[in-house]
Design brief:
Largest interface: A-B, 36 and 38 residues
Radius of gyration of chain B: 21 Å
Distance between the termini of chain A: 32 Å
Number of strands of chain B: 4
Strand order of the largest sheet of chain B: 1-2
Structural class of chain B: mainly alpha
Shape of chain B: globular
Largest sheet of chain A: 2 strands, antiparallel
Largest sheet of chain B: 2 strands, antiparallel
Number of helices of chain B: 21
Order of helices and strands of chain A: HHEEHHHHHHHHHHHHHHHHHH
Oligomer: heterodimer
Strand content of chain B: under 5%
Chain lengths: 503, 485
């Protein structure tokens, strides 16, 4: 595979699949069936190809690997430049895996406009992989904002009753942040004369941008990434979008799209504007703490399962933003682990809600109770992801949170203390949710005939279950390829990396 | 003095072509004449475009320096000729359905194209005025082409009266500049105030006032705020193919002419005209974006969209650099395809033999006609400037130029307004994709319209692929360096 443009293949293969589906004609049923199969096979092959990316990845090397470069836009000196490092590698795999999972998961639950549905998800797959592979800022922006189109359609076409409001809010809110980021890129381009991310970073370090300009640029980038993460108080689009989106849409939204914000901080704000990042770190910590405590409390009071998990996402992403701006390897690696774990776990939790929603068509917590009797497999799956979300040792959620908290403790014990309350409150709302939905007696008439998980649902959950446990008991598998890249990132922001016991 | 006609080769082709077709039309008194002439007119336009592409792009003067042919003119001529050809291809079916397929229509398009083609080559104030009037007079008649229709005649009259006022302003501006400089020629004007001690002399106030009048006149032609008032009414009232034509090539020509004036004779007075262009640009972007939100008629919405888009093109003009010219040219090129594609979709909106124009008529289009909905969605997302569609590349170029020229606050304002604009484009996508289907449209009867939609949609969708974009981006670059010298 030496000379193959592997990353381009992974990025654009789903588009080929989408093109195929577009050409399918015939009876509605036949079209639906064929669309599902094409989408499944395309996403599966894409996932396998992305495993090859992992296989060809050299964990010792800090820089970008599997690099592809070609001239692109004439006149602006913008190149088509792709590559992965230890940070983006995992997000590529996460994106391709979650696409396979949602295609399987929505096998029986989507009946209207299956063809368009599958096209939209393959389009998402392509754009998500692209955004993590792009090493040119304009190319990055292209994918970053391009994702809005399929997501807008997914929420608007297959969403719940308030889907139109949610779709518009999602689109315009994130677009407003993104355009400011574009201005920031163009200003940096003016200063450095390049849009290649590694080169931009290097030249910014060489030239030493004025702190006042750095602050403006940092705020412009923050506007974009903070909305994506989302950080309090820019999170208001998220509960709406999550609640109204179809299950698969919520999974990708929580699993991958929120990570774009964190990834953006790691790729742009932190290495390119280190002084401004240090200057604004307390600001980020404050917002993150508010997010953790406030949204956890809000989550406690929700009646809607999806909304509860949406708010828990905001709280978990608060831990991520604390970790990113912690100037040591523990914090940064912890934040990446937390993002990966959250991608799997909250994605899975949205699917958990989706499973019962498909059967009962209600997301109200009060509509359920005692499901353990009728749905034992479901109850087990739910429990596992609930525990992982709470951060029980042995599950993926624990690793990220503990790394971040240990990392931030070396920096500020107060921030660590507040961040830790998130774990407690998280346990409270998740356990309470679980008790109300799963335990108790199965008395409600509507729940009497409820079926346990179907085969396709079990298959969809299986990889997530395995990964949540593997990440919990053997985190080195995921952390090892990160070290070199994270060390380089920290060197760029001027932090001496020391070998720590936790490695 | 030798009389070299090579710089005006494409104009000669158009001119001879239109006269020949006029004779054919005058002597064949049959109903089907228009059906014969339209393809011939398209052929003439395409031949002229090919001649321009093949021509040597080094700067050459004609008619004692009143006319110039260079890479810049060539780029715009190709756009104008292709845009006119596309708009003419759309017209046939509509004119037949509405029983107004008179043979004059293709001829008027050719005359207007000839005018526009001369506009972008104008190298003196007199050539500027003459070419602009040739274009305008043809379009006044076209706007009122549906002469039994009240709205169409009203549109024609309104456009004519206001257009005459704008022409008056333009002419007054020209005379002021002439009076204070003693020359009509752009080349002479450019050197007049830039001699060894010229910079110190400064621009005479009268010439500056003249310049403002000229800019105002051109702003009217390109429908920039505050000279936009005519646009929604005329766009709505004029027959749809005429609107498709008006929204495309003439705007490109007007922006081209504005750049020619500002970057040629008045280039060193950037600081004098920059603030005017910035204000006009912001006002156009803002008004176009906010006013479009409330529209229910698609053609009216596109009128406001056109106002906003001219505002974005003016972002590039305001930069006053080679990069800015490049940005404005790229933007207008992409805009031309998006607009023609959108109007082609509007021409497909036919229900029980009658053309409909309301946005609500698009409800649920994605169920009934998925490919048309897809194409229209591509145009809408592209107009909104969402990557990876072509509209984003256009916006990228103009804002890049503005930032490079140090106009960062202006650029921030521009991108924020573009989010407002995104709202109403999204609304159309919402109506097509999220709403319950309305009554189906008639099946398309004219393959030309469908193919225009397909070509434009494919171009907008795959514009990021270098194979498609590099011819346009590359020649825009050449054009910009030709003008900026």
């Amino acid at each position: 595979m030496g000379d193959w443009p592997l990353l381009s293949l992974v990025t654009f293969l789903p588009l080929v699949g989408a093109g195929f589906i577009l050409c399918i004609r015939g009876e509605v049923e036949v079209v639906a069936r064929n669309s599902r199969s094409v989408a499944l096979w395309t996403s599966l092959v894409t996932f396998l190809l992305s495993l090859l990316v992992w296989g060809n990845f050299d964990p010792v090397q800090p820089g970008f690997q599997l690099v592809e470069k070609a001239p692109w836009l004439a006149g602006l000196g913008i190149t088509y430049y792709m590559g992965v490092d230890g940070i983006s590698l995992w997000f590529v795999l996460l994106s391709t895996l979650l696409t396979v999972v949602v295609v399987i998961g929505s096998w029986h639950s989507v009946h209207t406009r299956v063809k368009e549905y599958m096209i939209a998800f393959l389009l998402m797959d392509s754009l998500m992989v692209g955004v993590f592979c792009a090493l040119d800022a304009i190319l990055f922006y292209l994918f970053f904002e391009g994702i809005l189109i399929p997501m807008y359609l997914i929420i608007g076409i297959w969403g719940g009753p308030r889907r139109i409001y949610a779709a518009f809010k999602f689109f315009l809110y994130t677009l407003l942040g993104s355009v400011l980021f574009l201005v920031a890129i163009l200003v940096i381009y003016l200063h450095t004369g390049t849009t290649e991310i590694p080169e931009m970073t290097a030249r910014l370090h060489a030239s030493g941008l004025d702190l006042s300009i750095q602050k403006f640029l940092w705020i412009a980038m923050f506007a974009s990434f903070a909305v994506k993460v989302p950080m309090w108080p820019f999170h208001t689009w998220l509960p709406d979008a999550h609640v109204e989106a179809p299950t698969a849409g919520s999974v990708l939204l929580a699993g991958v799209l929120l990570k774009l914000g964190g990834y953006g901080f790691l790729r742009f704000s932190l290495p390119m504007l280190p002084e401004a990042s240090a200057y604004y770190a307390p600001f980020v910590f404050t917002l993150s703490i508010v997010a953790i405590v406030y949204t956890s409390l809000v989550a406690l009071m929700q009646n809607d399962m999806k909304k509860l998990i949406a708010y828990s996402s905001v709280a978990h992403m608060g831990i991520v933003t604390i970790g990113i701006f912690t100037p040591n390897a523990l914090g940064v690696e912890g934040s990446i682990m937390q993002m990966l774990s959250h991608g799997l776990v909250s994605g899975a939790l949205f699917m958990v809600v989706g499973v019962v929603y498909d059967r009962i068509h209600s997301r109200e917590i009060a509509a359920y109770g005692g499901l353990a009797e009728a749905m034992p497999v479901y109850a087990f799956t739910f429990m596992l992801f609930m525990m992982a979300s709470v951060g029980l040792p042995g599950t993926s959620g624990f690793i990220g949170e503990i790394l971040v908290i240990v990392g931030i403790f070396q920096f500020s014990s107060w921030v660590a203390a507040f961040a830790a309350t998130g774990m407690i409150l998280g346990a409270a709302y998740m356990l309470w949710l679980y008790r109300r939905v799963i335990f108790g007696a199965l008395v409600k008439e509507s729940l009497k005939g409820i079926r346990d998980m179907r085969f396709n649902e079990v298959v969809a959950f299986a990889p997530l279950v395995v990964l949540a446990l593997v990440m919990g008991v053997y985190p080195s598998l995921f952390l090892d390829p990160m070290h070199a890249s994270v060390d380089q990132l920290l060197a760029q922001i001027g932090v001496e990396t020391t070998k720590l016991a936790l490695r | 003095m030798t009389f070299d006609l090579t710089p005006v080769l494409s104009e000669l082709i158009l001119f001879v072509g239109v006269l020949a077709l006029l004779l054919v039309g005058a002597f064949r008194e049959q109903d089907a004449t228009s059906r014969l002439l339209a393809p011939l007119a398209i052929l003439t336009l395409i031949v002229a475009a090919i001649v321009v592409i093949a021509q040597d792009k080094t700067r050459a003067l004609g008619f004692d320096g009143h006319f110039v042919f260079d890479g810049y003119a060539a780029f715009l001529k190709v756009l104008i000729l292709l845009g006119s050809a596309g708009a003419l291809a759309l017209a046939g079916g509509f004119l037949q359905d509405e029983r107004i397929d008179r043979f004059e229509y293709p001829l008027l398009v050719l005359f207007a194209s000839l005018g526009m083609s001369m506009m972008v080559s104008a190298n003196s104030l007199i050539a500027l005025y003459m070419s602009l009037e040739l274009q305008s007079l043809s379009i006044y008649v076209m706007a009122a082409f549906h002469r039994d229709n009240l709205r169409s005649t009203e549109a024609g009259l309104k456009y004519f009266v206001l257009g005459a006022l704008a022409s008056g302003m333009l002419l007054y501006g020209c005379s002021l500049v002439y009076g204070f400089s003693g020359t009509l020629q752009f080349d002479a004007l450019a050197t007049l105030w830039s001699g060894a001690d010229g910079g110190a002399k400064g621009l005479p106030l009268g010439a500056l006032v003249g310049l403002i009048f000229v800019v105002s006149g051109l702003a009217f032609k390109m429908a920039a705020v505050p000279f936009h008032m005519w646009t929604p009414d005329v766009y709505e009232g004029a027959p749809s193919p005429v609107t498709a034509f008006m929204a495309g090539a003439p705007k490109v020509a007007a922006v081209g002419l504005l750049l020619r004036v500002l970057m040629g004779p008045f280039h060193q007075w950037v600081d004098q005209w920059q603030q005017i262009v910035i204000v006009v640009s912001i006002a156009s972007m803002a008004l176009g974006s906010f006013a479009a939100i409330g529209q229910s008629n698609f053609k009216r919405l596109m009128a406001y969209s056109g106002i906003a888009n001219v505002g974005y093109a003016l972002v590039g003009v305001a930069a006053g650099t080679a990069g800015g010219i490049n940005g404005a040219l790229v933007y207008m090129a992409i805009y031309l395809f998006m607009t023609i594609g959108t109007f082609a979709c509007i021409l497909l909106m036919r229900r029980q033999g009658r053309y409909v124009e309301s946005i609500a008529d698009l409800a649920g289009l994605s169920r009934r006609r998925p490919m048309m909905a897809l194409a229209l969605a591509i145009f809408m997302f592209s107009l909104a400037g969402i990557p990876p569609l072509a509209g984003f590349i256009g916006k990228l170029y103009v804002f890049k130029a503005a930032i490079d020229a140090g106009l960062i606050r202006f650029a921030v304002l521009g991108v924020v307004i573009s989010v407002v604009g995104a709202y109403y484009y999204l609304r159309i996508v919402k109506i097509m994709y999220f709403d319950e289907p309305a009554e189906a449209f008639d099946p398309p009867t004219y393959p030309a319209v469908g193919s225009v939609v397909a070509i434009c949609a494919v171009l907008m969708l795959f514009f990021v692929i270098p194979v498609l974009s590099s011819p346009i981006l590359g020649s825009a670059q050449t054009a910009a360096t030709a003008l900026a010298k």
